[in-house]
Design brief:
690 residues, 9-stranded mixed beta sheet, 6-stranded mixed beta sheet, 14 helices, 26% helix, 36% strand
Length: 690
């Protein structure tokens, strides 16, 4: 036993002297005690001194350290792979039965010796019963869970049941090494022999295509023990075959890459399926089939470039927009333009001093079309004022040279560091001389002359009612494109700058009162969460209307649900859905008016588990060897029971744990104090001194 105190224990001696002295002085001055014998006085002084000393002793805050011994039984953890690949083998039907028999026998044989913990792992770890429905496998997550949750515990052993295959996370041997001095008893499921099989290993294609465009579907095929044989790869659209290709396997283990060129000839989500015709003696046909979903749109943004005359800036801007797949760009001289703006999202105007350009601007404002104005060296203040873009120029018609400087407080969208470097170092543009201001605008790039940064804009954005616009105050943008190539051997930074400018102008602010936010694509093991918003006439966000939601599931059954009201918006959790294309409708009523939204979303299939037909017993053996454990196939699980029973290192562990107790909490000290005070009172009472 150890004693600890915040104050030195040497203070006990002065405390004792003080207690005796105070007690002696107290009784010496008591005239009512003069008739008592010396022995009675001595006893009373001793009792008073002892009481005071005990009180002072307790006030020192003394702690006593004691130790308690705790015995912990070994924890025996069963970690079972719960993924679909566990059922990909000939012995699939017996896997569950063997695991149940193993668990039962473990408890019967070692019930008094071990504490048992059962875990399953697929993407995550849980204590649920195994159902072998996991869509992905992260074996490392299982050992990491054990390492984190049973740290410093007496883990006697780990029984690890798996086929050894994983498709997420890192190699489980890394986390297994962190569980020190714990043997892993690996039980392998399936077999590691190479079998006759062909499988579609990977399918890649565009997520989005546009109506009438062609796009590739790339397929990777792997085959084992089919040397010299032929196969047929079919391409199906919504279940109907639209193309096929012959496959010839040249080696015992062959890899093939096949590409289909497909035309997007209808709108919406198109479900393409790749299918290999099964071969004789093929071990599995589940991995002969994969599907991909492509969304076909007819919603490319249309940009019209109108120029009064040929201009190198127009050429540079058009070349940057031409590479954007979701943009259709058309450049016209005024002399050949038909005057039609139908379907156009953005018009780029060059030659503001031309009266025909001015007429075109009037048209696009009436049509609520965004505009990008290029203020060139021919544009005067008089010309610019006709376009109502809030730009003030000096009236001297002189020109100057200025480089660009990104405005650090610009928040409308983000630009990459490469674009910022381009603007910082690119050649100067030709700009109007004198003071330039744009009180209505938000500046993206301002002027810099030498080391002096001016507030005068080179590129800025603004709006008039429903008309969104951007203005480029300067000529010579084409030099930025050439500079980008000279420095970086590509035009990526210049293209990004032009693309971001145009994309911002194309996007129109939504003024719809009823808005639904739903992801267009998720995977089948992911929860689908939908958000909704509703705004009143003052554009205040409210949650008073009730929002209904309905969709058809994979069995074509109509499901109806209601959004939950949050603090400012709505939320609906559809949970995890099966793979397929779903059509949905959301509706609500507010102030007697009905609002409705509809659309589609896709749940993509995860079929990586079906690709596995060969167990990785090498990994299972490595885990066992690294931990001084053993490896057996699951069918030989009884051997593992024998090996566990023969281990001498799986034993109880005793721990000596210290605990501290404050002296003031010790009951017998309080009892002694009570007895001394009581005895003193009794003696004085008995001798009539009270």
């Amino acid at each position: 036993m150890k004693i600890f105190s915040d104050i030195s224990l040497w203070w006990l001696l002065p405390a004792l002297i003080f207690s005796i002295g105070i007690s002696y002085l107290f009784y010496r001055n008591q005239k009512s005690l003069s008739q008592l014998s010396k022995s009675i006085k001595a006893i009373l002084i001793s009792l008073r001194a002892l009481s005071l000393f005990i009180i002072l002793f307790l006030l020192l805050g003394i702690l006593f350290e004691s130790k308690v011994t705790r015995i912990e039984k070994p924890i025996f953890i069963t970690l079972q792979d719960n993924s679909k690949s566990m059922l990909n083998y000939k012995d699939s039907l017996s896997v569950k039965k063997r695991c149940e028999d193993l668990q039962k026998s473990l408890k019967e044989k070692f019930n008094d010796k071990f504490e048992f913990v059962n875990l399953i792992v697929d993407k995550d770890v849980s204590t649920s019963a195994a159902n072998y429905k996991g869509l992905v496998t992260d074996l490392n997550a299982g050992f990491s869970f054990i390492s984190n949750n049973y740290y410093n515990r007496n883990i006697g052993g780990i029984c690890f049941i798996s086929d050894g295959n994983y498709n997420e996370g890192q190699n489980p041997t890394y986390s297994a090494k962190e569980i020190n001095f714990t043997p892993i008893f690996s039980l392998g499921v399936g077999d590691s022999l190479i079998k006759t099989d062909q499988k579609i290993k990977n399918v890649t294609t565009n997520d989005i295509s546009f109506l009438g465009n062609k796009f590739p579907i790339d397929v990777d095929i792997e085959a084992n023990k089919l040397e010299g044989q032929k196969s047929l790869l079919k391409l199906l659209l919504n279940g109907k075959q639209i193309a096929s290709k012959d496959i010839i396997y040249n080696e015992s283990q062959d890899f093939q890459h096949v590409t289909f060129e497909v035309e997007a000839n209808s709108l919406g989500y198109l479900n393409y399926t790749l299918e290999l015709v099964p071969k004789e003696n093929e071990v599995s046909i589940k991995n002969n089939r994969q599907s991909v979903v492509v969304e076909v749109l007819d919603a490319r943004s249309k940009i019209l470039i109108l120029a009064a005359s040929p201009n190198p800036d127009i050429t540079a801007i058009k070349s940057a927009l031409d590479i954007e797949k979701n943009i259709e760009v058309k450049a016209e001289l005024l002399s050949s333009w038909d005057g039609v703006l139908n379907g156009v999202d953005l018009v780029i105007l060059q030659g503001l001093n031309n009266s025909e350009i001015e007429k075109a601007n009037t048209k696009l404002i009436k049509g609520n079309v965004s505009a990008l104005y290029l203020v060139d060296s021919q544009s005067s203040m008089k010309d610019v004022s006709k376009y109502n873009v809030g730009l003030n120029l000096a009236s001297n018609n002189r020109l100057d040279e200025a480089q660009g400087q990104i405005n650090s407080s610009f928040l409308l969208y983000e630009l990459s560091e490469d674009v910022k470097k381009l603007v910082q170092n690119a050649p100067a543009l030709t700009v109007p001389f004198g003071k330039i201001s744009s009180p209505k605008g938000t500046t993206l790039i301002s002027q810099r002359i030498g080391g002096v940064v001016k507030p005068d804009p080179i590129i800025y954005f603004g709006s008039n009612v429903n008309h969104k616009f951007g203005v480029v105050v300067g000529e010579g943008v084409w030099k930025w494109k050439l500079f980008d190539y000279r420095k970086n051997k590509n035009h990526n930074s210049f293209n990004e700058l032009i693309s971001k400018i145009c994309q911002y102008l194309i996007v129109k602010s939504s003024k719809e009162p009823f808005r639904i936010k739903i992801p267009k694509k998720i995977v089948e093991n992911q929860e689908l969460i939908i958000n909704a918003e509703f705004y009143n006439a003052a554009l205040d966000q409210i949650t008073s209307p009730k929002i209904e939601f309905e969709y058809k599931n994979s069995s074509n059954k109509l499901i109806k649900m209601t959004f939950a009201k949050m603090s400012k918006d709505y939320q609906l959790n559809l949970g995890k859905l099966k793979a397929g294309v779903y059509n949905w409708t959301a509706s609500t009523t507010y102030n007697g008016k009905n609002y409705k939204k509809n659309g589609s979303f896709v749940v993509n299939e995860i079929n990586v588990e079906s690709l596995t037909t060969q167990s990785d017993f090498g990994l299972m053996r490595q885990l066992a060897v690294n931990s001084n454990g053993t490896f057996n196939e699951l069918k030989n699980w009884r051997n593992m029971l024998k090996q566990v029973s023969e281990r001498s290192d799986i034993t109880n562990v005793s721990y000596e744990e210290p605990y501290f107790k404050n002296l003031i909490d010790v009951i017998w000290m309080l009892i002694i104090l009570f007895l001394t005070l009581s005895a003193e009172w009794f003696l004085r009472r008995f001798h009539g001194t009270y």
